[in-house]
Structure of Serine hydrolase:
Amino acid sequence: MSLRRRHLLAALPVPAWPLSALASRPDVDTRLRAVVQDPDAPLMGLSVRLQVGARAVYAAQFGWQQWQRTALHRDTRFRIASVSKLAVALVMARLHAAGKLDLDADLAPWIPGGLQHPAHPDVPITARLLLNHQTGLRDPEQPRQPSTAALRAAIANPAHWHANRPGTRFSYCNFAFGVLATAMEAACNQRFDRLMQHWLFTPLGIHPYYDPCAVSPAQRSPLATLYRQVDRQWVAQADEPGPTGAACPLRAQGEQRPGDNGTVFGPQGGLRISLPELGQIAQLLTQRGRWKGHDLIPEPLFDSLLQASWTQTPGDAADTMGGIFQSWGVGLQRFTDQRTAQGGDRLHSQGGWQAWGHLGEAYGLLSGLIFQPQRAGQPGWALMYALNGTSQSLEHAAGRHSSFSHWEERILEVLLDTLPEKLPRTLA
């Protein structure tokens, strides 16, 4: 699609989906509250947001930000887990468009000690391969490395690489995003959290953060604690209130230079963000990279992010994480409406919904941002959810028609049932 065509699409009238669209759906709150208060498998709390075009047509919060102390509210921030990776992909696209760091350039010059597959040193490791989980990198015990020396050692360790030639196998890797963050820092000569603010968050008018210890107590107070239930008791796992309860990734780093070790910020999952702030990112996605009349990401580049870099096929040795991954774009998941023997990526029990986005899971949190971009005559849509505490392990919380947890299946079904009809539903 040409840039001229893009601007024509932006100028087309978009149906006005009124905010009152939910007035006739009083069951939405009831259905979601029933998920949170399920007597057999309760949740600590749940926040959801549904957008059509630039409008939030539904947003609600249920349960606790801190157990029996503070209720979830509109501006509660969550450590959003792997949804953080989607923000990194968008910034990487902007750096590519600005000529700062090419998606297909060899990243070895930007990484302390270099970057190459021990068994395939002739294949350049690029940002695109890192975003697509196709480098062959495996996760070390912890994606966050304590020092530059530790980062070098982790990259050089043959045990942290699959045998496959880069570009030939999909294998999800959190550590890949710490490596990419390091290259982004070096290319921009800017600390990772600051470059994310500069290239994405400030243009969108939001101020999420990665290091809870680097913000004021007032900024930290809306941060949700993440919980798991152990022996029927809620036990905090991350982001407890107060300066001593939160991880402080920079406190021991001294004067670390950009490009020394980007893993310290947790780029793979450490973004603390509220759902209204995440909604701004979602709006950029549904508007195909366009924001307030400007292309933050040029349309041909944005469209390329949506194209399949990998799709599961029979006999494929890909790591599908229990069937939830069936197809990948560039830095984001493609939900293909597949129901498989393992479960699959189906978004609704009745099928019929395809989309793009990213999911997150860590420390008892489950999260998702799922979207469809606008098309001629149709606005885009996005749904977001974050739940900050689960009462069952995921192994015992399997869904019925997919590889999602049973909580997520119910949440997704409610939100998709709530969307107006005749919105985009396919990957075409």
